[in-house]
């Protein structure tokens, strides 16, 4: 007889004998220590081939979330060195959002209860296998290091399917180690707790009363004592009290306290989950995940502002659902996806690598969740790696051409770019998707078409469009929106008109709000923004008004007092409310076509009133600064418009701060935008344009008070004001400060410097500022006065001024 340990073990299985090897016969001690796990565990997880024949895997040889339907699991079978049994977490593998329904777990109420000490194999109910070796002679069984095969009976589309998975002894050891740190519950206890959590979820979702008989949240005296400590100081007093309890007491209290806190105190529930998850005896993973999912579904706005002892809402999720404590054999998929969606980028990568290293079981939806996060991070290579693993995943009714895969591929293609390869220029991501077997549909080709136009090569975009048509992919609204956006950006008016001619016969495209807004924007660019100076402004306004009437309702224009009383529409238009962009463009056109300050003030007063009243359409304009900036541009053309301009900025500051506590104004829910750097620059330019240097300096002080950082337009506006005032020292100081902030002189700066009568003096002043020592202010003042006297003599010499600016530009070239 062979002394091979594999043959010896199989022979004992076949004969129904214990699989243990006497100590005196340990010739293979090294193999026994590393591969037999322990004596009693091997008895539990290994079953002879005769049992497989009597009970086929398709009938009873399965595992449905809990490892042992009789309340005993491999974790309850400890080795001879441990006196505490390790209870399974039966529902740790339950995936609440799994598309495959689970079969009900067979339960035998007559099954004997196992004591805390290590039970014997004979006490396990016969016919309820936990982990069974496959009856077939698989390569895994023939190998030197045999793997354990467990069967799982699932239901797919109403049909029972038997699935098998190979589990290495190392994975089983890791599973035992993780579950040894968990609180002890049998299968019925976990299912009962989850039923209570589900009842809380449904009652909250459907806004009904909770059925108390389903929620085990009635607290006893000891629970009340712990609850008092939670309310007093959960991070301190309660933590000490909790650590002083034994494992059985923690398990009993955790069930009731968790459900009570979820129902009555979500913030304390979050602290409770954090403290108990940091203990050596951790709650069952699936129970913690269900609790966090409940809190996120109904109390997320409140908890996102929660912060205690350096922990935030997301950091609590990272701590409670740490991947180090994820179950290996039965990993709850919804809990994994919840974790991946909520945690930081570093934690997502760590969870992905850990799951891959442990060969954790992940379904397609979970892989797609990882892929979506990697796409958000812009990590194209890792996202493609996930897709490659999905390709190797053999799952029922799964294909790389499924709808979910293609949606994620569309998002991934948005990061595509053109690269130069030895075979020529090509996209980076698209060829790899094609190699994996993904067949592009119209949505994917629309993204490819958009990427082609973004390269700046319109011919490449046209080739992609011809390819789509060749594949019988009819252009949709997204296709035409891409084509219109490209034509408008390139200023190709003929192409825009051709596309409009194709769109008009199709009502589904013509009424699309995005296409209508883009067409109206194109008409604004070609008619109002870049209008011919010789064209009558009234003709421009009425042309825009006629185009507006084709797509939108005229009522908002009447309420803004923009629509002329004598206007008669040439045709009956649509009653669709205007988009925010369309309404903004009509206001901008009106303000540009008429120059009377009284009209501008009237329209602004109506606009401000409608915003404060929470008008459904007009109030959306207050979310951005664009409309306010158009009014500022109109105000700065008239010196009398400076006060209304200042009042406009004050209105923006007040709207952004909200209503005063002592006012009776109605809260409309509209939060205005703060003045942006462009808004402040326009206000500054209004005083510079009207030659009010002192007021311009006050605006600069206000900008500094509100922490507004200058952009290049702001610096040029300030330089322009000082140059107009012939204040050479301030021009020099401004240029020096601009360079210190990392900006360089550009063409607009040089244009402003042409107003200087003596540009040579500016260069001298800048040279003085560049010296390490502080300049002598008195000498600089004398120099400025003498320079101005000299410039007065040659004020009419335009050629000399041009030569001075040319020399200044040449000297500034190295500094630029």
UniProtKB/TrEMBL annotation:
<protein>
    <recommendedName>
        <fullName>Pentatricopeptide repeat protein</fullName>
    </recommendedName>
</protein>
<dbReference type="InterPro" id="IPR011990">
    <property type="entry name" value="TPR-like_helical_dom_sf"/>
</dbReference>
<comment type="function">
    <text>Regulates mitochondrial small subunit maturation by controlling 15S rRNA 5'-end processing. Localizes to the 5' precursor of the 15S rRNA in a position that is subsequently occupied by mS47 in the mature yeast mtSSU. Uses structure and sequence-specific RNA recognition, binding to a single-stranded region of the precursor and specifically recognizing bases -6 to -1. The exchange of Ccm1 for mS47 is coupled to the irreversible removal of precursor rRNA that is accompanied by conformational changes of the mitoribosomal proteins uS5m and mS26.</text>
</comment>
<feature type="compositionally biased region" description="Low complexity">
    <location>
        <begin position="76"/>
        <end position="93"/>
    </location>
</feature>
<dbReference type="InterPro" id="IPR002885">
    <property type="entry name" value="PPR_rpt"/>
</dbReference>
<comment type="subunit">
    <text>Binds to mitochondrial small subunit 15S rRNA.</text>
</comment>
<comment type="similarity">
    <text>Belongs to the CCM1 family.</text>
</comment>
<feature type="region of interest" description="Disordered">
    <location>
        <begin position="73"/>
        <end position="121"/>
    </location>
</feature>
<feature type="region of interest" description="Disordered">
    <location>
        <begin position="769"/>
        <end position="803"/>
    </location>
</feature>
<feature type="compositionally biased region" description="Basic and acidic residues">
    <location>
        <begin position="769"/>
        <end position="780"/>
    </location>
</feature>
<dbReference type="Pfam" id="PF13812">
    <property type="entry name" value="PPR_3"/>
</dbReference>
<feature type="repeat" description="PPR">
    <location>
        <begin position="711"/>
        <end position="745"/>
    </location>
</feature>
<keyword id="KW-0677">Repeat</keyword>
């Amino acid at each position: 007889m062979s002394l091979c340990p594999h043959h010896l073990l199989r022979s004992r299985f076949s004969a129904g004998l214990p699989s243990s090897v006497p100590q005196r016969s340990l010739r293979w001690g090294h193999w026994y220590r590393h591969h037999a796990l322990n004596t009693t565990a091997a008895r539990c997880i290994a079953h002879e081939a005769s049992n497989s024949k009597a009970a086929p895997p398709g009938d009873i040889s399965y595992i449905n979330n809990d490892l042992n339907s009789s309340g005993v699991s491999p974790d309850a079978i400890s080795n001879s060195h441990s006196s505490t049994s390790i209870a399974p977490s039966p529902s740790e593998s339950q995936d609440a959002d799994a598309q495959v329904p689970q079969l009900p777990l067979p339960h035998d109420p007559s099954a004997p209860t196992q004591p805390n000490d290590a039970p014997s194999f004979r006490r396990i109910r016969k016919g309820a296998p936990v982990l069974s070796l496959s009856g077939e002679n698989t390569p895994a069984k023939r190998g030197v290091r045999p793997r354990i095969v467990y069967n799982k009976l699932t239901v797919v589309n109403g049909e029972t399917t038997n699935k098998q998975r190979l589990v290495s002894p190392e994975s089983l050891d890791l599973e035992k180690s993780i579950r040894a740190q968990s609180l002890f519950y049998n299968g019925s206890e976990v299912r009962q707790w989850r039923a209570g959590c589900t009842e809380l979820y449904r009652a909250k979702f459907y806004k009904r009363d909770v059925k108390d008989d389903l929620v085990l949240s009635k607290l006893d005296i000891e629970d009340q004592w712990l609850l008092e400590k939670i309310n007093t100081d959960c991070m301190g007093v309660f933590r000490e009290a909790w650590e002083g309890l034994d494992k059985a007491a923690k398990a009993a209290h955790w069930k009731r306290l968790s459900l009570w806190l979820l129902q009555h105190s979500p913030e304390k529930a979050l602290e409770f989950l954090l403290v108990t998850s940091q203990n050596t005896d951790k709650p069952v993973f699936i129970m913690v995940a269900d609790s966090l999912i409940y809190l996120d579904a109904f109390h997320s706005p409140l908890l996102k502002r929660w912060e205690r002892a350096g922990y935030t809402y997301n950091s609590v999720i990272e701590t409670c659902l740490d991947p180090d404590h994820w179950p290996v054999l039965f990993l709850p998929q919804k809990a994994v996806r919840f974790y991946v969606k909520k945690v930081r980028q570093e934690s997502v990568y760590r969870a992905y690598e850990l799951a891959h290293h442990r060969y954790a079981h992940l379904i397609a939806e979970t892989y797609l969740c990882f892929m979506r996060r990697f796409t958000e991070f812009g990590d194209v290579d890792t996202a493609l790696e996930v897709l490659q693993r999905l390709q190797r995943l053999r799952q029922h009714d799964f294909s790389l051409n499924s709808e979910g895969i293609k949606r994620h591929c569309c998002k991934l293609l948005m990061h595509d770019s053109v690269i130069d390869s030895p075979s020529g220029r090509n996209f980076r991501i698209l060829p790899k998707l094609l190699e994996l077997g993904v067949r592009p549909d119209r949505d994917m080709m629309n993204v490819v078409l958009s990427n082609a136009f973004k390269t700046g090569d319109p011919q490449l975009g046209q080739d992609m469009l011809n390819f789509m048509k060749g594949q019988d992919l009819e252009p949709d609204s997204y296709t035409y929106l891409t084509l219109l956006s490209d034509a408008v950006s390139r200023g190709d008016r003929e192409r825009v008109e051709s596309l409009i001619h194709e769109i008009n016969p199709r009502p589904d495209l013509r009424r699309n709000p995005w296409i209508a807004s883009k067409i109206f924007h194109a008409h604004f660019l070609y008619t109002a923004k870049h209008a011919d100076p010789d064209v009558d402004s009234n003709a421009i306004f009425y042309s825009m008004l006629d185009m507006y009437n084709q797509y939108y309702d005229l009522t908002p224009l009447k309420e803004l007092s923009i629509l002329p009383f004598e206007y008669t529409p040439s045709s009956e238009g649509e009653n669709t409310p205007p988009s925010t962009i369309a309404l903004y463009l009509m206001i901008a056109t009106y303000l540009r076509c008429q120059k009377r300050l009284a009209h501008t003030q009237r329209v602004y007063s109506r606009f401000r009133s409608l915003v404060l009243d929470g008008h459904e359409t007009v109030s959306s304009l207050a979310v951005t600064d664009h409309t306010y900036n158009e009014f500022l541009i109109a105000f700065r053309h008239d010196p009398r418009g400076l006060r209304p301009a200042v009042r406009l900025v004050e209105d923006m500051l007040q709207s952004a701060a909200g209503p005063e506590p002592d006012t009776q104004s109605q809260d409309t829910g509209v939060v205005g935008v703060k003045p942006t750097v462009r808004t402040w620059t326009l206000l500054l330019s209004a005083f510079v344009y009207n030659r009010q240097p002192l007021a311009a300096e006050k605006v600069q002080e206000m900008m500094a008070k509100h922490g507004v950082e200058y952009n290049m337009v702001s610096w040029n506006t300030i330089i322009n004001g000082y140059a107009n005032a012939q204040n050479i020292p301030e021009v020099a100081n401004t240029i020096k400060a601009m360079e210190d902030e990392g900006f360089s002189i550009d063409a607009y700066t040089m244009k402003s410097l042409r107003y200087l009568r003596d540009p040579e003096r500016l260069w001298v002043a800048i040279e003085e500022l560049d010296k390490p020592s502080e300049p002598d202010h008195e000498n600089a003042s004398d120099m400025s006065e003498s320079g101005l006297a000299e410039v007065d003599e040659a004020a009419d010499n335009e050629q000399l001024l041009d030569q001075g600016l040319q020399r200044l530009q040449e000297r500034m070239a190295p500094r630029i």
